[in-house]
Amino acid sequence: MNIGKILPASFYDREVVEVARDLLGMRLVRWQDGIRISGIISEAEAYRGEEDLACHARVGRTKRTEIMYGPAGRAYIYFTYGMHWCLNCVTGEKGFPAAVLLRAIEPIEGLEIIAERRQGV
Fold first, then answer.
1. Backbone dihedral angles phi then psi of residue 30, each to the nearest 5 degrees
2. 26-53: per-residue pLDDT in tens?
3. Exposed/middle/buried for 53, CB within 10 Å: 0-12, 13-18, 19+?
4. Distance between CA atoms of residues 42 and 101, nearest Å
5. Are the CB atoms for 68 and 56 separated by under 8 Å?
6. Can you give the pTM of this predicted structure?
7. Dihedral sign of CA atoms 118, 114, 12, 66 in order
8. Which of 70, 76, 87, 118 has the smallest number of CB atoms closer than 10 Å to its CB?
């Protein structure tokens, strides 16, 4: 596990399935008002290109999907089904749309803040 270190863009500049697999077990961290909130990534999904019918880029390059065609390592966040915010990591070669959806995270730190946020769901 890579505790205390930010993953470099080169980690994400690989084939999307490899990145998805390697993110499992890693810790996602956010600092808010001096409080560390973190969790272990326990589920991820790989989305690869316009031929992947589950991928946002299946419709091609649009304003919404433009970030997926950019450099690896960028965050891609969207709202779906009127209730869920989803975090993706752009992967692979610039110009080819691929991303990993962080589908589930096991909360580890900042549990009180996480619980407060879930009450609004």
1. -135, 140
2. 999 999 889 999 999 999 999 999 998 8
3. exposed
4. 11
5. yes
6. 0.87
7. positive
8. 118
